[in-house]
Amino acid sequence: MLKNVNQRVAIVLAVLSAFYLVLSYQLPTYPYIPVDADGVPKALGWLLLALSVGLFFSKDRDSEEQKAKRHIPKKDVISLLVVFLLVFLYITFFESLGFILATVLFVFSSTWYLGYKKHMVNAIVSILFPIILYSIFVYMLQIRLPAGILPF
Amino acid sequence: MGALEGIATGFQVALSLEGIMFVLIGVFVGTFIGMLPGLGPISAIAIMIPITYGMDPTMALVMMAGVYYGAVFGGSTSSILLNAPGISGTVASAFDGYPMAQQGKAGKALAIAALSSFVGGTISVVLLMIFAPMLASVAISFGPPAYFALMLLGLSAIASLSEGSTIKAMISAVVGFMIATIGIDPQTGTARFNFGSANLLDGIDFLVIALGLFAIAEVCYLIMNRAKKSVGTAKEIGSLRLSKNDMKEMSGPVGRQSFLGFILGILPGAGATIASFISYITEKKIAKNPDEFGKGSVKGLAAPEASNNAATSGAFVPLLSLGIPGSGTTAVMLGAFLVLGLQPGPMMMTDRPEVFWGIIASMYIGNIFLLILNLPLIPYIARLLTIPRPMLISLVIMFSFIGVYAISFSVFDLYLLLAFGVLGLLMRMFAFPAPPFILAFILGGMMEQSFRQSMTISGGNISIFFENNISLVLIILSVLSFIFPIIKTIRTKKKEA
């Protein structure tokens, strides 16, 4: 049985290093090159593996503050997941809807979901910020942000 | 170009209308972002990078430098007013600053912080002007082995000096280095760890990592703690005036700690956080009345404030003269240089003197702005802290997205940003420090190249790293910085037993 959280993290890291090592050993090599493209990755993979073993056996214990940091109430986990879902949708529609529309919808809905009750202020900020930023980037800095379904 | 001529060029840049305007924007935005709990200079610089696209690189960097030390200044404001340090470098400022504010002397505390920061910042800029060119003239003769050894020292120092567990800091650095190996190998053209995706052939952009690990991770944290950690409104500020007695009391600590902070800032891995703590502790040790510390002592506030600002300028020495960052924040600054098509290092002083000296000269102007403009404005800026958390969260996400999209024009990078945000959150939860990760990520590519170049020069003989005195000394120092924390841990355990 794994006694503490460091040991569990160490196992995850060891698996990660093993995976990275397998990929490193599959990299092609060429003759007459003292250190090829696989050299540093292999060294890093072994180093991470060694450090994971070190972490597994280390006597470091988390402080109470650290333990408290990991304790997330269920309600907050749900909030986080909902915001992630909103961000995911924001990314998905970023190009097709366009920067302005997607951002207005995202900023308004996430601010509203996170508990801001002044809907008028929220609407004004959600609309103004994306329009101002879009204008700065597209017209002043000449950096194209996706226009999407809007004609400008 | 001689040093005096260089300084004159620098002031020409910094005192131009454009220069003054961008310094002002930089310090103002930096102060504001630095005040927001959790969002420190790294997030501030990363968020501001997209604004600089298309700007004149010199002006862009003058602004970014302003953002950096403005953020350090802003951090102390929230430490003093709210006991909620914006960045770790200003935690020590809260020890005496917050009790002072509680006693209704917030204005005095802010004035002490501003004046100490100003003196610390100014003394260290003078030192920066002296030391950066000196170091650059030495570094011009550095070959790949010395560069490799120098970067190794930077990484080992940041890993061993990080807060908390050294082994976790090392793991963080190794994983950061691993992420840097993704993409096409520039020496052989081999595609590495891209899983067949064309999106990963160019590797991962540093902005994705910086914004993900810092800004997005902080947002996740804010979401979970939005009810608990309410910032609240700024308290009554009170008078900003300092008495002669206060000035007298401040002068000693500020003078001493400006020099100490600068030296600690130059050292790789140390930076503002360690500088401010060491300054606080040394002043407490040499004080006649150490019991006053922690209860609103003038010295206890002046010392870390002078020191953390001096360390900020000190951190520019290795960045400007060697092109090697010694901390997470200067690593992101290096990223900003690279985005703007500039490579800091010994050649920059001769190739782009207006950038090199312009940044340094602008720091004088920036420090003056912090003192004369920000201080009276602090009560008003502090009101901005009352931005509702839900809105702040949404806006930080939006800014981060614009930053990443404007550099890559790729939706794939936005998904990556989200993924690194989750990684950043997990790292916080499991106490893995993020600065070694970002430093290793940014130095990783350069380190690998200089290592392989050295090996090619020597025909595969590793002794090349020990033949040159500079690289030998640097490698010995790196090994010592790895061993030092281990010895320290063993000693502490023996003492406990």
Automatic annotation (TrEMBL), chain A:
The UniProt record lists the keyword Nuclease: no
Keyword Membrane attached: yes
Domain of life of the source: Bacteria
Keywords: Membrane, Transmembrane, Transmembrane helix
Residues spanning the membrane: 40-57, 78-108, 120-141
A Pfam match: TctB
Domain spans labelled DUF1468: 9-146
Protein name: Tripartite tricarboxylate transporter TctB family protein
From TrEMBL, chain B:
Protein name: Tripartite tricarboxylate transporter permease
TM regions (residue ranges): 20-46, 110-132, 138-159, 204-224, 259-281, 322-343, 355-381, 387-407, 414-442, 462-487
Pfam families: TctA
Source species of the chain: Allobacillus salarius
The entry's keywords: Membrane, Transmembrane, Transmembrane helix
The DUF112 domain, residue ranges: 20-439
The organism's taxonomic lineage, starting at the top: Bacteria, Bacillati, Bacillota, Bacilli, Bacillales
InterPro entries: DUF112_TM
